[in-house]
């Protein structure tokens, strides 16, 4: 079990309560669960990394329990009761240093401290669809839902939100535009927040400006947008809707850059890789798909037999993760190949050094040298 | 030369309206003429097939005269047919000669044979899929906790054919009730159905006086399937049909639903009918899936002896094609779709099927 969980680079939670780990390099998927005690009320609603080293996965289930799964050991290490099903499903799970933040649909946001049973409770309003944590400022969370506008909370001062979004102006029929925030994303290196709504709108808010209305609004498709993710490259956002349409939108003008094809069912979980231009999507059609963001092609497609609710990508390299594990036979063969590779490598590096020297010269001298280097 | 040419053209003109045989007789006269024009000194034989030598890049489509081109083409086809027959005879001879050692007969390729393997094909021993199916929205029916009760309605203001189709469906499906739509919104109809213990809602959509769509909604919170309906044949249009279907509960046959999606749809159809069929009635409803089209037939059978069965088709017949499967009750705008048919992505291969 431990070796299986160590090679998995993508973790998924399903409606049947099974945690699935997928290794793209070995092209295998593993189920981590106890088959005897499966039940529908263990359906996984939210998933989060338990620590920055990504050695623990936290799963929030419908029955109000949060389980901890260790990727090194390959077993569930802890279970914690964090609320009961009457308050609704989990809509957000996050971890700050030594405490866990949970949010449910009824709006009860709780901060659970390690070791102690006391909690800090905040009521963020009814009908919450999503709660997300700011990855750079981990004590700040944003919440939003149906008829519940985007609010950013600072957990050190939990009585009032530090930012509440204002609804846009009335539309061309002079009617109030309904609010339904489905997913939230924090744009890195800035204060801005992107949201996608159930009325197929993507909005960008900037709390640092006095304007509480969205800075940018874009529309995509005709169906509710259910998931959103921000890739490593700035200026774009990937959204998915209930019809299985995944699109990349440009955040400077609000235009659709391109669509990612292949999905047949509603997108439930979407995550971009922290460094590589890849996006993993899972949904109701029981498939995990990994697309490349540069050419919008499908890289991997894995059939996982249950409907999938959430996906978590580990930040390690998806392709080279197999280098760590190797059998004896493979090692022997690899060594021989490696020698050959190193032989060829040396000559290349010499040339590169030459080129580097040339480049330095080129900066000093004129255009002719530049042409030589370009070859 | 001129005289011969004029005779040929005259003969062609006279025999324009006549049969192929006459044209063929005309042919040997024509060909030598052409020959003499084109290739000098080449021997002309009476047999046009083997004697004619055309330049190697010649194709039938280069002849501008339609009649001559047609005749050439027919010759070409006949030659091909002869060759094929000869090949067949030879193979049969070889097969006879070998006797028992003959290699097995080759199976012809069909689209069903060449179907691309679908990775979602359900393995009967799969525990996870078994658990998923055991606890899904149909579990109440399959655990015998509820009995099916079906409400059949149409789109607003249906015309005669659709109305008759709905009535006939109601005779085929037990515990089915037909109600007039009256322009009511489905989202308001559904809570009322649930309160009156209905388990299914069928809406037959009509376009230009012909039913063309079917929405099948499993009621408490179940999936909604939207189908394209085609080839609807009412009872009076059926040839050699039997009498009216009786009130007995029919047996249900579900053929060829192999993939995970196919399983879901198969269960959707199975849950329309009550559990215990009354074999006294000798009626059977068949949902046969082939190439993603679902064919519905309703028969009455009778066993003449142990090996022979006679069947009589009663009841309406129609063909369905799945357009989308939505999780939850009917909500086309805000509902989440489990499967949507996307023509350009899914119909690109002729050998890929999804059900």
Automatic annotation (TrEMBL), chain A:
One of its GO terms (cellular component) is nucleolus. The keyword Phosphoprotein applies. It comes from the Eukaryota. Keywords: Methylation, Nucleus, Phosphoprotein, Repeat, WD repeat. Gene3D superfamilies: YVTN repeat-like/Quinoprotein amine dehydrogenase. It is found in: Nucleus, Nucleolus. It holds the Pfam family WD40. One of its GO terms (biological process) is ribosomal large subunit biogenesis. Isoform 1 interacts (through WDR repeats) with NVL; the interaction is independent of RNA or pre-60S ribosome particles. Isoform 2 does not interact with NVL. Interacts with MTREX; the interaction dissociation in a late stage of rRNA synthesis is required for appropriate maturation of pre-60S particles and depends on the ATPase activity of NVL. PANTHER family: NOP SEVEN ASSOCIATED PROTEIN 1, WD REPEAT-CONTAINING PROTEIN 74. This is WD repeat-containing protein 74. It comes from Cirrhinus molitorella. The lineage of its organism: Eukaryota, Metazoa, Chordata, Craniata, Vertebrata.
TrEMBL record, chain B:
This is Ribosome production factor 1. May be required for ribosome biogenesis. It holds the Pfam family Brix. The keyword Ion transport does not apply. The keyword Hydrolase does not apply. Its main location: nucleus. One of its GO terms (cellular component) is preribosome, large subunit precursor. PROSITE patterns: BRIX. InterPro entries: Brix, IMP4/RPF1. The lineage of its organism: Eukaryota, Metazoa, Chordata, Craniata, Vertebrata. It is found in: Nucleus, Nucleolus. GO terms for biological process: maturation of 5.8S rRNA; maturation of LSU-rRNA. Keywords: Ribosome biogenesis, rRNA processing. It comes from the Eukaryota. Gene3D superfamilies: Probable brix-domain ribosomal biogenesis protein (3.40.50.10480). GO terms for molecular function: rRNA primary transcript binding. It comes from Cirrhinus molitorella.
